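ok trying again, last paste got cut off:
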Amino acid sequence: MVRRGNSGCFVVTDIETDGPQPGANSMRTFASVAVTEDGDIIGQFEGCLAPLDGAAPHPKTLAWLQGQPAVWADIVRDPRPAREVMAAFAAWVRALPHEPVFTSHPLAFDGFWIDWYLRHTLGLRLDKGAYPGERLFFGAGLDLPSLIMGVTGWDYARCRFQYYPVEWLGGHAHTHRAIDDALGYASILREMLRRLRASAASP
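nice, full thing came through this time. structure:
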């Protein structure tokens, strides 16, 4: 990927899956919010994916999803083939005016699934490393709880949604709808970036 100047933007992403294992289970929805280093939101993306061929929901996850009417409605609305959705996502990321950094809460879950889907549908990678495939993002991604820990001084175990002040969320409820949660996490990121800028400006 060609670098687009020296500035970056954070692609804050939340996913919803029907089980713990990509391939055996499917990612059903995801959403991303692009946030500049100055804290400005410059774009959003939402995708609703059809289940993978040969995959099946995990029974416990499926029962939970069906018990959340708004989440389930989001999952079953107009699902499209995974390759089509991931191609649209890749095009959206590439059109961003700054170098994109994948960001999620936590990186190990959302990033793992997004990388798997990029590899298996498009031959792309979240982060290339020494492996085949073009990388879609700069670097290996940002784990939002780790950033919160560094900025606030909290213990890592405290960097969980239930402990965050409501004002960090910017009025976005944590509903497990991908776009709602991505917007909430983007608001948290903006608060952390604000604090970092304030700290850097202090004598």
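cool. The two ends are 37 Å apart (CA to CA). Strands lie at 8-17, 27-36, 41-48, 99-104, 124-125, 134-135, 142-143.
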